[in-house]
Structure formats: structure tokens, C-alpha cells
């Protein structure tokens, strides 16, 4: 599941725009984003109805977390896992000591994932956190534009195409919340297997989420492609 783009936002020292397309089985239901107290921290996220977790959210820790299924390469799924990856996202949103969590969080018997973490509690930082089922890898990312596509769903050729489309967007329109939403809705060459919005019958792009942090506030924009409902929420977190 998932395509993620992340770019710095030029109007603020802590500014960024993270946009995510969620590709999921059509039978899997999602609840619209809302606030939840989890481990004594305020979180805001859309909820996976089945497992109770999420793939994307923000917290009063001044943190944004977004997860894609799979690490760098496709993996063979096991029948059962110890914990849903959606709960892992909530744990990382609520955790107080992020760097310790990267090192010490128990990942054994959790399905592989790619997690993008944006933290601005003490200056803006971008992290990529990979778990392939055996090893974890943490990378502090450069403060520039990034794009990820889920390895279980997209071949290396498809990933390269999407990188090319993303570069073309930067050159033609630049990166803004509007241009990035348009990209996540419309980028592609008419192929429903590789476009940003996919339709593979049993599996489709179910929603688009954009989180934009600027000087004024944090904006959480969410669209269900199933119901066509759009919600916008604004936050000013106080530490």
C-alpha cells in the first residue's frame, strides 16, 4: 500500500508537506480522522476499522508518522503477526523518546514496513525507518523532496516512472499543497496499474491524505475516494 511524497515548506523553519495515497483491499473499511488519547498523548488520525491502527497521523509530540507496507523489496507474508503495523504507527506518534524507540522498539514478528517520520519538537527532521523482518535501518534524510512507492505493489520500473513524474512536477509547477494534491490525484500515463490512483479490482487507492505544517498551523486534509467525503482540520499544538 501507499505512495508518499514529502517536501519542505519554504514559509516556515518547521514547514513541510507530506501527502499519502493509501492503496488497500476494497473490503477494508476506514473511519474518518479524529482525535484520540493514546498512551496519554493526543493523536489525530484516520482509523483502520479492522485493526484499530492507522497508516498516517500527527501527535502533540510535534510529530507526523506515515507507514507503507513492505521494506525495500517484496516479502513473503506469514499467516499471522504479533502486532499490526497500524499500532506501531500509534506507538511512534505517542512515544516520548523517538531516538530510543528507533533503536529499542520490539519489531520481531511484525510485518516489514517503511516508516516516514517528521519531527519538529526540536528543529525539523525527516527520518526513514525500515524494517525488513530481520533488520532495522534508520536514515536521517536530507531536507529536500522525496517520494516513496510501496515495494509489494510496485516494480522497480514503476517506481522509476513515478520518480520521473515527480521530477517533472517540480520543474513544471513546483511543489505546493495544491500541485502535490493534483499530482496524487492525476499523475500517470493512463495505466491503472502504475498511476498514482490505482485500480486493480480487489485493490484500489482508497484515500488521499495531506499534512501541511506552516507558520500559522498544521492542516490535516483527508479525502475518502470511496465516499468522496473531504475533511479539513487545523491544529496548533502546544508543547
What are its keywords?
38% strand, alpha+beta, six-stranded antiparallel sheet, seven-stranded antiparallel sheet, 239 residues, Penicillin V Acylase, Chain A, globular
Radius of gyration: 17 Å
Measure the end-to-end span: 32 Å
Strand order of the largest sheet: 3-4-5-6-7-8-9
Cα shape: globular
Pfam families: TANGO2
Protein name: Protein containing DUF833
Describe this structure in words.
- The chain is α+β, with helices and mostly antiparallel strands and 239 residues long.
- The protein has a single domain (3-235), classed as Penicillin V Acylase, Chain A.
- Helix content is 18%, strand content 38%.
- The chain contains four helices and 13 strands.
- The protein has helices at 85-94, 98-104, 156-172, 177-186, and strands at residues 3-8, 16-25, 30-38, 41-48, 56-59, 63-69, 113-119, 125-131, 136-141, 146-149, 203-213, 218-224, 230-235.
- The strands form two sheets. Strands 3-4-5-6-7-8-9 form a seven-stranded antiparallel β-sheet, covered by helices on one side. A six-stranded antiparallel β-sheet has the order 10-1-2-11-12-13, covered by helices on one side.
- The chain is globular.
- It starts with a strand and ends with a strand.
Amino acid at each position: 500500500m501507499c505512495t508518499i511524497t514529502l517536501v519542505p515548506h519554504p514559509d516556515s523553519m518547521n514547514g513541510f508537506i507530506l501527502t499519502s495515497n493509501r492503496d488497500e483491499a476494497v473490503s477494508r473499511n476506514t473511519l474518518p480522522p479524529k482525535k484520540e488519547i493514546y498512551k496519554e498523548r493526543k493523536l489525530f488520525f484516520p482509523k483502520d476499522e479492522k485493526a484499530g491502527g492507522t497508516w498516517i497521523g500527527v501527535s502533540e509530540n510535534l510529530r507526523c508518522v506515515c507507514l507503507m507496507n513492505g521494506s525495500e523489496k517484496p516479502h513473503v507474508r506469514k499467516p499471522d503477526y504479533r502486532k499490526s503495523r497500524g499500532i506501531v504507527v500509534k506507538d511512534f506518534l505517542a512515544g516520548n523518546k523517538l531516538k530510543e524507540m528507533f533503536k529499542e522498539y520490539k519489531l520481531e514478528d511484525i510485518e516489514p514496513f517503511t516508516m516516514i517520520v517528521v519531527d519538529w519538537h526540536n528543529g525539523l527532521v525527516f527520518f526513514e525507518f525500515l524494517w525488513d523482518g530481520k533488520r532495522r535501518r534508520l536514515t536521517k534524510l536530507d531536507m529536500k523532496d522525496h517520494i516513496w512507492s510501496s515495494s509489494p505493489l510496485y516494480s522497480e520500473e514503476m517506481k522509476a516512472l513515478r520518480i520521473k513524474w515527480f521530477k517533472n512536477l517540480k520543474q513544471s509547477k513546483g511543489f505546493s499543497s495544491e500541485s502535490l494534491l493534483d499530482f496524487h490525484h492525476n499523475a500517470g500515463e493512463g495505466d491503472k496499474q502504475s498511476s498514482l490512483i490505482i485500480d486493480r479490482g480487489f485493490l484500489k487507492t482508497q484515500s488521499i491524505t495531506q499534512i501541511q505544517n506552516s507558520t500559522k498551523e498544521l492542516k490535516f486534509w483527508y479525502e475518502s475516494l470511496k465516499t468522496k467525503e473531504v475533511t479539513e482540520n487545523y491544529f496548533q499544538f502546544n508543547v
